[in-house]
Amino acid sequence: MAGELSWLKHQAMRPGRPLRCDHRQSAALSFSGYCCIGALAAAAGCVAAVSPVAFAALLLASLLLVPLVATRPSVKLAPLMILVISPSVVLPDLDVADLNGDSLQKFAVLGGILAIIASYGLRRTSHGLWAGGLLAFALVVSILDFGGEILSDTGTATRAFFGFALPWLVLFIKWPLEAFDDVLTFLSRLPALSIMVGLLLQVADLSDVVATDVDGIPRLQGASIAPHLAMLCFVAIIAGLTLAEASPRPSQRAVLTINIAILLGTVTRGAIVASLFVIIVFAVRALSARTSLGQLARRAGKFVALVSFCALVVTLPEIISRSTGNSYEGTLNTSGRDAAWDFYLGLALESPVTGKGLGFSSVANREFQPAGVQSAFEAPHNEYIHVLLDMGVMLGVGYALIIAGLFLHVSRRIERPLRPLVLSVACALAVYSAVDNTFSTPQLMVTLMLYISVLAIPNRESVADSRGSTLIGELRG
Hints:
The model is unreliable at 1-30 and 458-477 (pLDDT under 50). The protein is an all-alpha fold and 477 residues long. The N and C termini lie close together (9 Å). It has a two-stranded antiparallel ribbon with strand order 1-2. It contains 20 helices and two strands. The radius of gyration is 23 Å and the shape is globular.
């Protein structure tokens, strides 16, 4: 009961939106804004006509300046919208200074995160420090070839270190109290944004919104690829369920419905199973609530359960068709994972103590070209094998414990009604990681770290101490 009262107190004392200015001032600001946008659009058009590369660089530089001048958290996150696009789809042949499109996208995301940190300030996080230290040690082991079993070169190890470490930087953002709603809303809109950008790319004949896989199954991919869009949906659904529990609004039901539909349209089985598990936990928790706030949660729980069931029934034939065995895998279609797991696990067991070095999993298939493993498998599609191959047993277990410790830490700090949801996310991530590249894909880990980083804001006592307020110090369920 104390937890529910604390939750209700938090709801009552949440900061509101700033007051609107008068209509004349608003009209003047709008007119000035449209003039500025028109001038910038004209200038951008001239640059694009002369040099598309210069236009892309100018656009990226402008996005990185947004966090420094914007006031709303949702606007400061604009540079991270680049996650809705997969460079491998838009620019598959890009190669600049030995960096492909995915590497350049990660550099752009890094710039956006650093710009947000510069805007809000740096927050100390022990989990971020531990993860960074462990990954740095793994990089040293890879470069110095401790144990004599390392096969990855310095460049490969450095790129892999950067990819693993990038999401943890998000934890260092010192979010203000009002960022809670804005960040979760931003995350919940990313899948729809990817679809809209994908439609524009299809009009420009750069990619297709719906692609057919090797088994002939049509899959929704937006401006990305289907697995990456599914990862965005997984985090978007989690963010939407959190908003439905914390501050229910009718519009959230529509956004949740869209995200569930997009997820099922990708026909990505790992993401669907993980999301359904979280939805079931949310629905059971919501339907068992017995407070006035719980009435709103119960409605949301019933709605989400009904929508998920109906959408699953509609897409179940496609999921079954994609899971049906084929000529090379027998009764269950794992999309080539069966052979890939055997190959990567065999390599990992050759040197279980140190692994083969950071990043070796991304080049192993290309170097060895094993029979039966598809060339598209540039990673094991199983993060446990991936970490074992890149880091070895001890560092791999340490990395997993840091992630588990982060979820446990957050679950203790947040209000009691949200704890089952957060713990279910941790369990879902553990299952999801067994069939996909979750830890090393920014579309999932960067967005998931954004979600985690704002979860503890309502209970963060350091905010109250730094601002001289007692608002947050009393909110411990």
